[in-house]
Amino acid sequence: MELAAELLGARFKNPVLLAAGTCGFGEEIQGVVDLGLLGGLVTKSVTLEPRRGNPAPRVTEFRAGMLNSVGLANPGARAVLAEKLPWIRDHLDGLPVLVSVAGHRVEEYWEVVETLEPGPGFVGFELNLSCPNDARRNGLPFALDPDALLRVVSGARERTRRPLLVKLAPNTADWGPVVHAAEEAGASALTLVNTLPGLLLDPRNRRPLLGAGAGGVSGPALRALGVYAVWTVARMTRLPILGVGGISSGEDAAEYLLAGASLVQIGTASFWDPRAPARVVDELRRFGISQGVHRVSELVGAALPPPEPEMSDPAGTRDGMGASGGDSGVIHG
Ligand code: RRO
Question: How many other C-beta atoms lie within 10 A of the C-beta of residue 106?
Protein backbone atom coordinates (compact mmCIF):
# COMPACT_ATOMS: atom_id res chain seq x y z
CA MET A 1 0.00 0.00 0.00
CA GLU A 2 1.23 3.50 -0.84
CA LEU A 3 1.56 5.36 2.46
CA ALA A 4 2.99 8.66 1.21
CA ALA A 5 0.93 11.83 1.48
CA GLU A 6 1.46 15.25 -0.10
CA LEU A 7 0.08 17.92 2.19
CA LEU A 8 0.90 21.45 3.32
CA GLY A 9 3.47 21.74 0.56
CA ALA A 10 5.46 18.82 1.97
CA ARG A 11 5.86 15.15 1.25
CA PHE A 12 5.21 12.86 4.20
CA LYS A 13 6.57 9.39 3.46
CA ASN A 14 3.79 8.00 5.64
CA PRO A 15 0.94 9.62 7.59
CA VAL A 16 2.38 8.94 11.08
CA LEU A 17 4.01 11.85 12.90
CA LEU A 18 5.21 12.27 16.48
CA ALA A 19 2.96 14.64 18.43
CA ALA A 20 4.05 17.89 20.06
CA GLY A 21 5.54 17.52 23.51
CA THR A 22 6.49 13.88 23.08
CA CYS A 23 9.73 14.12 21.13
CA GLY A 24 11.38 17.38 22.18
CA PHE A 25 13.03 18.84 19.08
CA GLY A 26 14.06 15.46 17.68
CA GLU A 27 17.54 15.56 19.22
CA GLU A 28 16.26 14.41 22.61
CA ILE A 29 14.85 11.14 21.26
CA GLN A 30 17.43 10.42 18.59
CA GLY A 31 18.74 6.91 19.20
CA VAL A 32 15.55 5.93 21.04
CA VAL A 33 12.99 6.37 18.24
CA ASP A 34 14.02 5.63 14.63
CA LEU A 35 12.95 8.95 13.13
CA GLY A 36 13.80 7.76 9.63
CA LEU A 37 10.80 5.43 9.71
CA LEU A 38 8.30 8.19 10.47
CA GLY A 39 6.28 10.64 8.43
CA GLY A 40 7.39 13.67 10.43
CA LEU A 41 7.37 15.28 13.86
CA VAL A 42 5.94 18.21 15.77
CA THR A 43 8.30 19.90 18.24
CA LYS A 44 7.67 20.75 21.88
CA SER A 45 5.67 23.98 22.11
CA VAL A 46 7.93 27.04 21.95
CA THR A 47 7.24 30.22 23.94
CA LEU A 48 9.03 33.54 23.55
CA GLU A 49 11.07 33.24 26.74
CA PRO A 50 12.54 30.01 28.13
CA ARG A 51 10.29 28.21 30.62
CA ARG A 52 11.40 25.82 33.34
CA GLY A 53 7.99 24.17 33.51
CA ASN A 54 5.98 22.88 36.44
CA PRO A 55 7.14 21.15 39.65
CA ALA A 56 7.66 17.37 39.59
CA PRO A 57 6.07 14.95 39.24
CA ARG A 58 4.96 16.14 35.82
CA VAL A 59 3.61 12.86 34.52
CA THR A 60 1.66 10.00 36.06
CA GLU A 61 -0.04 6.92 34.65
CA PHE A 62 -3.43 5.39 35.30
CA ARG A 63 -5.28 2.42 33.80
CA ALA A 64 -6.77 4.32 30.88
CA GLY A 65 -3.84 6.56 30.05
CA MET A 66 -1.54 9.27 31.31
CA LEU A 67 -1.89 12.63 33.02
CA ASN A 68 0.73 15.36 32.44
CA SER A 69 1.41 18.85 33.55
CA VAL A 70 4.78 19.69 32.06
CA GLY A 71 3.99 23.39 32.05
CA LEU A 72 5.43 24.30 28.66
CA ALA A 73 9.06 23.65 29.60
CA ASN A 74 11.12 24.80 26.59
CA PRO A 75 14.30 26.73 25.81
CA GLY A 76 12.49 29.76 24.33
CA ALA A 77 12.24 30.99 20.74
CA ARG A 78 15.72 32.51 20.40
CA ALA A 79 17.48 29.31 21.53
CA VAL A 80 15.24 27.25 19.26
CA LEU A 81 16.22 29.49 16.33
CA ALA A 82 19.93 29.39 17.17
CA GLU A 83 20.33 25.74 18.19
CA LYS A 84 17.33 23.47 17.68
CA LEU A 85 16.34 24.36 14.11
CA PRO A 86 19.92 24.13 12.76
CA TRP A 87 20.23 20.72 14.44
CA ILE A 88 17.02 19.59 12.75
CA ARG A 89 18.30 20.82 9.38
CA ASP A 90 21.63 19.06 9.82
CA HIS A 91 20.40 15.74 11.25
CA LEU A 92 16.86 14.91 10.19
CA ASP A 93 17.47 14.56 6.48
CA GLY A 94 14.50 16.56 5.26
CA LEU A 95 11.96 14.96 7.62
CA PRO A 96 8.92 17.28 7.62
CA VAL A 97 8.97 19.12 10.96
CA LEU A 98 6.26 21.38 12.34
CA VAL A 99 7.16 23.79 15.12
CA SER A 100 4.57 24.02 17.87
CA VAL A 101 4.02 27.56 19.16
CA ALA A 102 2.47 28.60 22.49
CA GLY A 103 2.05 31.77 24.51
CA HIS A 104 0.31 33.47 27.41
CA ARG A 105 -0.77 36.42 25.31
CA VAL A 106 -2.09 36.76 21.76
CA GLU A 107 0.98 38.84 20.83
CA GLU A 108 3.37 36.22 22.21
CA TYR A 109 2.29 33.78 19.48
CA TRP A 110 3.03 36.45 16.87
CA GLU A 111 6.44 37.20 18.38
CA VAL A 112 7.40 33.51 18.41
CA VAL A 113 6.33 33.10 14.77
CA GLU A 114 8.29 36.23 13.80
CA THR A 115 11.38 35.02 15.66
CA LEU A 116 11.37 31.51 14.16
CA GLU A 117 10.20 32.42 10.65
CA PRO A 118 13.72 32.93 9.19
CA GLY A 119 14.93 29.64 10.69
CA PRO A 120 15.88 26.50 8.76
CA GLY A 121 14.66 22.93 8.97
CA PHE A 122 10.91 23.19 9.32
CA VAL A 123 7.83 23.15 7.13
CA GLY A 124 5.34 25.17 9.16
CA PHE A 125 3.87 26.05 12.52
CA GLU A 126 1.35 24.24 14.70
CA LEU A 127 -0.28 26.93 16.86
CA ASN A 128 -0.99 25.28 20.19
CA LEU A 129 -4.14 27.05 21.32
CA SER A 130 -5.25 24.24 23.61
CA CYS A 131 -2.66 23.63 26.34
CA PRO A 132 -4.65 22.60 29.42
CA ASN A 133 -1.78 23.40 31.78
CA ASP A 134 -1.49 27.15 31.44
CA ALA A 135 -3.13 29.11 34.22
CA ARG A 136 -3.64 32.27 32.13
CA ARG A 137 -7.05 33.49 31.02
CA ASN A 138 -8.67 31.85 34.07
CA GLY A 139 -7.73 28.49 32.61
CA LEU A 140 -9.70 28.96 29.39
CA PRO A 141 -7.44 28.12 26.44
CA PHE A 142 -7.59 30.20 23.25
CA ALA A 143 -9.05 27.21 21.42
CA LEU A 144 -12.28 27.59 23.41
CA ASP A 145 -12.61 31.30 22.57
CA PRO A 146 -13.33 31.92 18.86
CA ASP A 147 -12.52 35.66 19.06
CA ALA A 148 -9.15 35.08 20.70
CA LEU A 149 -8.42 32.26 18.25
CA LEU A 150 -9.22 34.54 15.32
CA ARG A 151 -6.78 37.17 16.60
CA VAL A 152 -3.94 34.70 17.27
CA VAL A 153 -4.23 32.98 13.90
CA SER A 154 -4.82 36.15 11.81
CA GLY A 155 -1.77 37.82 13.35
CA ALA A 156 0.35 34.71 12.78
CA ARG A 157 -0.92 34.52 9.19
CA GLU A 158 0.36 38.06 8.56
CA ARG A 159 3.82 37.05 9.76
CA THR A 160 4.50 33.89 7.77
CA ARG A 161 3.71 32.27 4.46
CA ARG A 162 4.40 28.83 5.86
CA PRO A 163 1.51 26.45 6.63
CA LEU A 164 -0.26 27.26 9.89
CA LEU A 165 -1.88 24.39 11.75
CA VAL A 166 -4.26 25.16 14.58
CA LYS A 167 -4.40 22.66 17.45
CA LEU A 168 -7.81 22.49 19.10
CA ALA A 169 -9.08 21.18 22.44
CA PRO A 170 -11.26 18.08 22.95
CA ASN A 171 -13.54 19.73 25.55
CA THR A 172 -15.53 21.81 23.09
CA ALA A 173 -19.31 21.73 23.16
CA ASP A 174 -19.62 23.13 19.63
CA TRP A 175 -16.65 23.08 17.27
CA GLY A 176 -18.40 25.22 14.67
CA PRO A 177 -17.36 28.68 15.93
CA VAL A 178 -13.69 27.81 16.50
CA VAL A 179 -13.38 25.90 13.24
CA HIS A 180 -14.86 28.77 11.26
CA ALA A 181 -12.68 31.31 13.12
CA ALA A 182 -9.62 29.24 12.16
CA GLU A 183 -10.75 29.14 8.51
CA GLU A 184 -11.47 32.85 8.43
CA ALA A 185 -8.07 33.65 9.94
CA GLY A 186 -6.25 31.69 7.24
CA ALA A 187 -5.38 28.40 8.96
CA SER A 188 -3.95 25.75 6.64
CA ALA A 189 -5.01 22.72 8.69
CA LEU A 190 -6.43 21.68 12.05
CA THR A 191 -4.90 19.34 14.62
CA LEU A 192 -7.46 17.52 16.74
CA VAL A 193 -7.07 17.03 19.72
CA ASN A 194 -4.90 18.20 22.62
CA THR A 195 -5.18 16.52 26.02
CA LEU A 196 -8.34 16.71 28.13
CA PRO A 197 -8.17 18.49 31.53
CA GLY A 198 -8.10 15.96 34.38
CA LEU A 199 -7.03 15.37 37.96
CA LEU A 200 -5.80 12.37 39.92
CA LEU A 201 -5.48 12.31 43.72
CA ASP A 202 -3.51 10.16 46.09
CA PRO A 203 -6.32 9.09 48.42
CA ARG A 204 -3.92 8.49 51.31
CA ASN A 205 -2.29 11.88 51.50
CA ARG A 206 -5.31 13.57 49.86
CA ARG A 207 -3.12 15.51 47.47
CA PRO A 208 -2.90 15.64 43.67
CA LEU A 209 -0.52 13.10 42.13
CA LEU A 210 1.05 15.78 39.91
CA GLY A 211 3.18 18.56 41.32
CA ALA A 212 1.07 21.19 39.57
CA GLY A 213 -2.27 19.70 40.58
CA ALA A 214 -4.45 19.11 37.52
CA GLY A 215 -3.12 18.10 34.10
CA GLY A 216 -4.01 16.83 30.64
CA VAL A 217 -5.30 13.31 30.00
CA SER A 218 -3.80 11.42 27.06
CA GLY A 219 -3.47 7.83 25.92
CA PRO A 220 -6.19 5.23 25.26
CA ALA A 221 -8.86 7.22 27.17
CA LEU A 222 -8.53 10.05 24.66
CA ARG A 223 -9.04 8.02 21.49
CA ALA A 224 -12.83 8.03 21.39
CA LEU A 225 -12.87 11.79 21.98
CA GLY A 226 -10.27 12.41 19.31
CA VAL A 227 -11.97 10.25 16.70
CA TYR A 228 -15.28 11.94 17.49
CA ALA A 229 -13.72 15.39 17.15
CA VAL A 230 -12.16 14.52 13.79
CA TRP A 231 -15.36 12.90 12.53
CA THR A 232 -17.43 15.92 13.60
CA VAL A 233 -15.09 18.62 12.31
CA ALA A 234 -14.34 16.84 9.00
CA ARG A 235 -17.95 17.48 8.03
CA MET A 236 -17.65 21.20 8.76
CA THR A 237 -14.53 22.16 6.88
CA ARG A 238 -12.40 21.59 3.83
CA LEU A 239 -9.23 22.13 5.88
CA PRO A 240 -7.03 19.04 6.20
CA ILE A 241 -7.10 17.47 9.66
CA LEU A 242 -4.31 15.89 11.69
CA GLY A 243 -5.75 13.39 14.16
CA VAL A 244 -4.15 12.78 17.55
CA GLY A 245 -5.24 11.13 20.79
CA GLY A 246 -4.69 7.57 22.03
CA ILE A 247 -3.28 6.01 18.87
CA SER A 248 -1.21 2.94 19.68
CA SER A 249 -1.85 0.57 16.77
CA GLY A 250 -2.22 0.63 13.00
CA GLU A 251 -5.96 0.11 13.34
CA ASP A 252 -6.21 3.07 15.73
CA ALA A 253 -4.47 5.19 13.09
CA ALA A 254 -6.81 3.85 10.39
CA GLU A 255 -9.76 4.81 12.57
CA TYR A 256 -8.64 8.46 12.60
CA LEU A 257 -8.04 8.41 8.85
CA LEU A 258 -11.48 6.91 8.22
CA ALA A 259 -12.99 9.65 10.41
CA GLY A 260 -11.43 12.27 8.15
CA ALA A 261 -7.84 12.84 9.25
CA SER A 262 -5.22 13.12 6.49
CA LEU A 263 -2.31 12.55 8.88
CA VAL A 264 -2.07 11.24 12.44
CA GLN A 265 0.20 11.96 15.38
CA ILE A 266 1.40 9.62 18.13
CA GLY A 267 2.20 10.78 21.64
CA THR A 268 1.69 8.74 24.77
CA ALA A 269 2.22 5.37 23.05
CA SER A 270 5.81 6.36 22.29
CA PHE A 271 6.47 6.98 26.01
CA TRP A 272 5.34 3.45 26.78
CA ASP A 273 7.17 1.92 23.83
CA PRO A 274 9.67 3.92 21.75
CA ARG A 275 9.09 1.48 18.88
CA ALA A 276 5.33 2.12 18.85
CA PRO A 277 5.37 4.81 16.12
CA ALA A 278 7.31 2.59 13.68
CA ARG A 279 5.07 -0.35 14.59
CA VAL A 280 1.97 1.76 13.88
CA VAL A 281 3.34 2.55 10.39
CA ASP A 282 3.95 -1.13 9.76
CA GLU A 283 0.55 -2.19 11.10
CA LEU A 284 -1.21 0.50 9.08
CA ARG A 285 0.43 -0.79 5.91
CA ARG A 286 -0.61 -4.37 6.73
CA PHE A 287 -4.13 -3.28 7.60
CA GLY A 288 -4.48 -1.44 4.30
CA ILE A 289 -3.27 -4.46 2.36
CA SER A 290 -5.70 -6.73 4.24
CA GLN A 291 -8.51 -4.37 3.23
CA GLY A 292 -7.49 -4.21 -0.43
CA VAL A 293 -6.54 -0.54 -0.09
CA HIS A 294 -3.90 0.71 -2.56
CA ARG A 295 -3.29 4.22 -1.21
CA VAL A 296 -3.66 5.63 2.26
CA SER A 297 -5.70 8.49 0.80
CA GLU A 298 -8.47 5.96 0.04
CA LEU A 299 -9.02 5.65 3.80
CA VAL A 300 -9.28 9.39 4.48
CA GLY A 301 -12.87 10.25 5.37
CA ALA A 302 -14.17 6.89 4.14
CA ALA A 303 -16.32 6.43 7.28
CA LEU A 304 -18.01 9.81 6.94
CA PRO A 305 -21.64 9.89 5.88
CA PRO A 306 -22.10 10.94 2.25
CA PRO A 307 -22.40 14.72 1.81
CA GLU A 308 -25.92 16.04 1.68
CA PRO A 309 -26.86 18.50 -1.04
CA GLU A 310 -26.31 22.09 0.19
CA MET A 311 -29.97 23.01 -0.13
CA SER A 312 -31.27 20.10 1.89
CA ASP A 313 -30.11 21.71 5.12
CA PRO A 314 -29.98 25.45 4.63
CA ALA A 315 -29.80 26.19 8.36
CA GLY A 316 -26.75 24.01 8.82
CA THR A 317 -28.48 22.18 11.64
CA ARG A 318 -27.18 18.68 11.04
CA ASP A 319 -26.28 16.56 14.02
CA GLY A 320 -23.81 18.17 16.36
CA MET A 321 -23.11 21.13 14.14
CA GLY A 322 -25.59 23.65 15.46
CA ALA A 323 -26.70 26.71 13.56
CA SER A 324 -23.07 27.80 13.19
CA GLY A 325 -22.17 24.64 11.30
CA GLY A 326 -21.76 26.55 8.06
CA ASP A 327 -20.53 24.42 5.18
CA SER A 328 -23.00 21.66 5.92
CA GLY A 329 -22.41 18.46 4.09
CA VAL A 330 -18.94 19.36 2.88
CA ILE A 331 -16.27 16.73 3.17
CA HIS A 332 -12.84 18.26 3.03
CA GLY A 333 -10.59 17.14 0.22
O1 RRO B 1 3.48 21.48 28.52
C2 RRO B 1 2.40 20.97 28.86
O3 RRO B 1 2.12 20.79 30.06
C4 RRO B 1 1.38 20.56 27.88
C5 RRO B 1 1.05 21.28 26.74
BR6 RRO B 1 1.98 22.81 26.24
C7 RRO B 1 -0.02 20.85 25.91
O8 RRO B 1 -0.37 21.46 24.89
N9 RRO B 1 -0.69 19.73 26.28
C10 RRO B 1 -0.37 19.04 27.37
O11 RRO B 1 -1.02 18.03 27.66
N12 RRO B 1 0.68 19.45 28.17
Answer: 17
